[in-house]
Specification:
By secondary structure, the chain is of the alpha/beta class. Helix content is 33%, strand content 25%. A seven-stranded mixed β-sheet has the order 2-3-1-4-11-5-10, sandwiched between helices. Helix 1 crosses helix 5 and helix 3 crosses helix 5. The longest helix has 24 residues. The two termini are 19 Å apart. The mean pLDDT is 96. Pyroglutamic acid binds next to strand 4 and helix 4.
Amino acid sequence: MKKLLLTGFDPFAHYNINPSWEAVKALPEVIGSFSVHKMLLPNIYGTAGRLLLEEAERLKHDVILMTGMDSGSTRLHLDAVAVNLRDALLEDNKGAAPWGEPVVPGAPAAYFATIPTHTLVKRLQKQGCPVHLGYCTGGYVCNDIFYTALHHFNGTPVKTGFAHVPLLPQMVWDESKALPLEETVKTLRQIIENLSEILTEEEHA
Ligand code: PCA
């Protein structure tokens, strides 16, 4: 079986729950051809990325799919790109608020995701799945770990991607601006199943 490292974040700002970790927790341990290894990351610049890389190097995962919450969307999105920028709109969970700083000094401005985001989104939309492409992970901690992982595994066979998930109905004043947890879990599962199929197809091509 292939090894998938699936991460979610702890709560931050005024929220006491983070739907990314709630959804990751609810997923099974085996999806498609993947054995799924779940990991909770702290919303802290630098620390989250370091813990992620330590775990990924320790267990030698084939694929890394990170998840985080996005308060501005009612659908999931698969992020196409990570940028070498730390721009906090909010303090992280240790009070850091970098502005205009690089994630990795001297490294490239951006990296594309190495999971097949475009093929995935096309397939998922045909299946009626609420997923679209994201072109900006922002400059906060999600982008930080996504960039860190893409930079670290650049040029290796490890495939790296990021999915942002919407808020839960209990987190917003207008429930139409959120997605129930069951829907997020179902969609994440569909993303991972399709990813497993695409990678298997690519291997046999
Ligand atoms: N979302 C934040 C960081 C943690 C999370 O769940 C982000 O989009 O950067």
